[in-house]
Amino acid sequence: MLASIRLILLLTLFSHVIFGQTAQLVGNVKDLQSRPVSGVSVRLLEGKKGKLSNEQGLFEFQNLASGTYTLQASFVGFKTLVQKIQLEEGKTLSLSLELVETTTDLKEIVVVGQLSQNEKPVSIGKLPIRPMDLPQSMMTLDRSLLEAQQVRTMSDALMNTNGVYIMGATGGYQEEIAARGFAMGSSNTFKNGMRFANGMMTEFSGVEKVEILKGSTAILFGNVAAGGVLNLVTKKPKFTFGGEIGLRAGSWSALKPTLDIYGGLSSKIAARMNASVEEANSFRDGVSSKRTYVNPSLLFKLSDKTELLVEGDYLQEERTPDFGAGIINYQIVQVPRERFLGVAWSYMKQEQASVNLNVTHRLSTDWTLKFMGGLRTNSSDLFANTRPNAGALISTDGTWVRNLQKTDLQEKYGIAQIDLTGNIKLGQMNHQVLLGADSDFFNTVTNAYNNYARYDTVNVFASRTYQNRTDQPTLTRATTTTAPVNRLGIYVQDLVHISEKWKLLAGLRYSYQQTASEVYTFSSAKTAEAVTFDGAFSPRFGLVYQPTTAHSFFASYANSFTINSGVDINNQALPPSLIDQYELGVKNELFGGLLSANVTAYRILNNNLAQNSLINATTYSYVKELAGSVQSEGLEIDLMSKSIHGFSLNAGYSFNETKYVKSNTYIEGSLLKYNPSHTANLGISYRLNGFQAGITTVYIGERFAGRSTRIKVDNDAYRLIQLPDYLQADVSASYRYKNIAIRAKMANIGDVISYNVHDDNSVNPIAPRNWNVGISYLW
Predict the structure, then answer these.
(1) Cys-Cys with 237: which of 24, 272, 308, 467 at CB 3.0–4.6 Å?
(2) What is the pTM of this model?
(3) What pLDDT score does 18 carry?
């Protein structure tokens, strides 16, 4: 079916390519300090045509009739510029526009609906491509939406993103993300373009916007999971002085003071500081958390063409590990939502610190050179009971013998990346070009300790009372694993503007990865070492057809890869598994750009999935073969409006089916775990002067946890656990009077219950109805 649709679409597209001898208009927009201004609306009033300036302040009109036009450039906070221009046939007019700030203080006014969803290019894409020109599904949650919904967690943010969802919350100290059926580990999550460790709860007080690129991004980042990538953009320095100091309080004794202050230190240096401290208990008895966050940044204007942005990010937290309610015979235990089954003194301590430098040098109006370098350290220290059913099963009467576990981890990560982007015209075609290279490394040291068996006994139903221990025994170290990873990639990408209606995106990346492992076992005083070398090409092709400026049809193919562990039957290291991704879609700007309406269909196919080898009846789990197959297919619908009489709409729906197509281990046709078949979201907000209110709803369909049944195990006890669907709604309201803002939010107003489940051993209920209020002073 999809193959037929692709063929029809491609045949239709190739039948309409048109070239013409017309005039062209290119230009750039700057402020009085010669800084580029992005998002400026540049319009030719006679032809009712409009463009938005990109990150470098550049804009371009193609295939214009010769003649006199009235050009208008407008952007909030600047005076509207209007001037007459003359275009000649066969020639290109180049303009440099300078905008002057208005005298009205607009620095803290949030303007809703200035840009539609299809007018917001994402910085994570490296090349500033207009979303309508990009043959890929994407989404941006900007500051106005995050503030209107009072987003505080990743779960809050992902209530707005169909096809991207929380798949688990193992231990209650993390939010595990997935997209299109594939888990998004730390290689798929970025902050300001640099990977961050997502094994701890994300702090949102310093986040300006959330960017999501769905589908394949291997050409940009190499070894990433197939579902997509997520990028958090933090608040940037400003030369105008301002800030906000606030205090929030909420359910379960939550208390959070925040600070955001920014301003120019000189005409060439601007700074910003975000900070917060938070302490809270939980709806789970005996569970608590505390965290500290600091996010400083400095912007140096080194010259009219060169800027240096330095950003730091520090997060430290301690939480009570909570592995949830437990499972008996692959059924979730029905106990009160507040009952905590863990050891009272247990802890999970985590810390993450990073610094990154971004240098932007504008070589000319058409070419820009960017360099990004960064370092990150993160550590964790877990001492708690083992997960229910991990080593000691819960008996049918609820009796559970608790064991203890302890691990600690230290990781260092670094990256250097350089990108050259530009615009060049060859013949009648314009090219947006990206040339780049990146190199990064991980060095992870993990200490695992011998479990402490039979620490004490509890009954999950509280039908029997046992004497619980409160002491912290000393656990002996079992292994130390050192795992360095070094990666290198070079890539090229070209968006060819064949004509005003046709665009072709083509690119190629080569990735090289060295993965090593050194495991020292204390009981034997022996070290096991291994090292593998992998390389892979990642191509990308996409075709875009725009019959009008308001409609864009696209089809694309991309290839990515995943690294495999183990060896084949000849004791040779397994090569990477290659993953094919196909995408078809349409992007629309309806009702004069008031509503963005996008539809995307996709197929992701891993036809050489690594699975245990059964050749020659081998029983070694590390001996594998690339003979399995996993397929993900789905459909996504995204709707987002500009503000209409104060009302704004954000809605979406997704369908996904991720299953084993071929397997010698699991039932063919069975679904992979954690992925809801259906998700949907709807958000409506209203703004009038200083008042704002809204409701945000999310539907998560049925999905599976537990363990997939193995076909080669007789009477296998493993079973999948079907988790019920649920609909959650949050409401929020705020009012600002002069310099004072009051905000309030109630989450899960229907008090629905559901669970995030990892395998059969971390069953974490979602939070019941809860509230928080805040007051802030802004200047």
Answers:
(1) 272
(2) 0.86
(3) 32
